[in-house]
């Protein structure tokens, strides 16, 4: 019985070591995938608190988006949607609001209001619905950051 217990303990120790190595490799793979996303969708500070994603300026105050050109805003928000979706998959961290990625015509769904969809583009959209979509997208970003320990939800 003592011999069986010793073998079982050895297997347990070996299993824990293998699990540790696997978790390390998983973290490395996730970091590499996130780094590749950073190169696909470069985000740069453009001054005055604004940012560029693939050369398209995004104001830090999202309420200013309504006054910007529709195609550029829809495209930039589509890039952000794609980044969030991919990071969510890579990190196995579900987003609270479902995103339908469609390059410059992405949508976000509020499951709390009977799966109503909100546009993440301006053309043909009501301003209230567009701004609600932005708020939900912001919540998805907050949730992903919080899940990774990078941000504390208020």
Automatic annotation (TrEMBL):
InterPro entries on file: UV_resistance/autophagy_Atg14 (IPR018791)
GO molecular function list: SNARE binding
Any one of the GO BP annotations: SNARE complex assembly
Keywords for the protein's UniProt record, in alphabetical order: Coiled coil
One family name in Pfam for this protein: ATG14
One CC-aspect GO term: endosome
Top-level division of the source organism's lineage: Eukaryota
Protein name as annotated: Uncharacterized protein
